[in-house]
Amino acid sequence: MNGLLGDIGRVFFVGFNEFNETVMETVREFKPGGILMMPGVLDDYVSTVEFFHFLEREGEYLISSDHEGGQMETIPYIPPSLGNLAFGFVDPSITYRYANMAGNIMRALGFNTVFAPVLDVLAEASAPVIGFRSFGSDPKVVSEHGIAAVKGYQDAKVLSCVKHFPGHGRARVDSHHDKVIIDVPKREFWNTDMMPFIKAIEEGVEMVMVAHLVVEDIDDLPASISRKFLKEILREELGFEGLIISDAVDMRALSAHYSVEEIIKRFFEASGDMILVTSVDDLKKYYTTLEKMIRSGAISKDHVDRAVDNVERAIEKYYTREGIGFVAEVARKALKFRVSSRLPKKVHVILPKGENLSPADTTVKYYKKLGEVFSKIFEVEGITEYEIRKGPQIDGIDSFVFDVVVDAFRSEEALRAHLSLREKAKGVFYIIARDPYDENFFKDYDYVVTHSLNPISLYETLTIFKEVAS
Fold first, then answer.
1. Which residues are identified as catalytic?
2. Range of the domain at 153
3. How many other C-beta atoms are found inside a 10 Å radius of the C-beta of residue 411?
4. Predicted pLDDT of residue 130
């Protein structure tokens, strides 16, 4: 047992849809055991790389996505899947092959966990929340393909989390929005909907996500907070010793009917391990409530210690620092700085109009992202674009200027325009973003040589500038 109140953040798996200072402060303060990267982070290359870079420096975590393939795809670097329903028509070895490929890409990026596969058995007239996330309507087919997917991920050294136990396929409503009640005899439910989960546990799955649905013939509580489902069925009857995680607790099937205190007490006393929250506000609310309940004796710390120990064992087995965050470290080490400026409140950005300068040049895609990177870190008052061979053509600017310089040495007109900004603005920081020999013209002023046009290099530049100029 750890026995330390400071460890309680490890029982939370928290989702982030962006990467910013609030996210960094939240991770540092609450030290969650799991990080769920949501589409807003993953759709932006800079946020993806910088988030992994940050996590690599801060600690060890289970790092996951909801990337299942097909209906639910969140990682743009993985080739799209037809979806589980289509895979259910071929040999399970094909499902293994896709999951293993996806898992290897995840692992290379820095993920060590995936909330997949879906083991729900599809029923007629069910809610679209499952759809072709399911491998089909035959429990045997779902079991075989689910187990193949689990092994594909595991062989890629990715922790596979099956969902949504005990089976969401019969639900006529979406648990994101409303209460879900399954009205079917226990024996029938056990032999159909639960069958894929039972088989996956027999085959060594190590993480199970529990849904907020009520199976009336088994318990009148949602499975996610049911002692009957978690302790008596999962732990004792099925012998599952791995991680039990709730589905997102902000889903109305749970949050609209139970208090935070009741959810926490029932979940951990029923032998649950991790609570999934999908916002910073929810994390703060659940963390502080759990802390108060432990201090007041409303819940035994032993239940939380047991969960923390389970989480730490999984992290020890699956965590790695071999992800894509190293790209940001390379960018940082390649920077050459000269800074004496004070931190500006507002900035004006001077950017080159994007163009590939050679047939052996595809960097035009980067130019379009540079303005977004400035906005991540500074309050941008305005952006002015310039033609590379002419340089920036502007009058006075009543703010600090970041000037992204591209090949100024090729044109005297462009060079004069860049240098003249010192007389037209409150301050200037030159970002030499393409040819390092431009440094010769700006070495008497504040500047950085990035040796790269990649937006990651710009992000690292601005981050360090902000630290130095503070």
1. 176, 247
2. 5-318
3. 16
4. 80
